[in-house]
What does this fold into?
Amino acid sequence: MIRPCTDSDVPSIFAIVNDAAQAYKGVIPSDRWHEPYMPMEELKEEIAHGVKFWGYEDGGQLIGVMGMQQVKDVALIRHAYVKTEMRNRGIGGKLMAYLLGQTDGKILVGTWKAASWAVKFYQNHGFQLVSGEEKDRLLKTYWNIPERQIETSVVLVYKEFPS
It folds into this structure.
C-alpha cells in the first residue's frame, strides 16, 4: 500500500534512506560520502523545505519511500529508497508510478552519475538524461547543492523540458 508519510514516519524514513544509501558507499566520490548518508537534521530540513514523502507499506512497516518537491515550475523526485532486503520486487517502480500520477507538470530527478543502477531505474520509468550543459543549468536552478555534487551528478527529465 502506498500512502503519504507523516511526522511519525520520520524515524522510519531516516532508517530506510540510510540503509539503502549504503549502495553508494565506494561508488560515489569518497568526498561526497558520509555516515550517516543523510543525518536526521538534514532529513527534517528537506521536509521543512517542501519534500513530501510517500511510503510503500507492507505488513504495517514502511519498506520504501520516495519524495516529491515542487520547486518553481517543476516537480523534483527526491530521495527514492527501498530497504536493501526488499529491493528488486517492484516497490520502487510502484512508488514511481504513483508519484508520476501526482503531477501533470515537468518532473526532474537528479542522481549520482556513478550510480548506474539508479540512472537505469529512472530511464526504465520514462526519464531521459539531459546534456551536461543542461544538467548544470537545471541543478543550479532547481536544487541547492554544492558545486562538487553538481560535477558528479546527472539530471533526468520525465516530460520534455523547454530549454
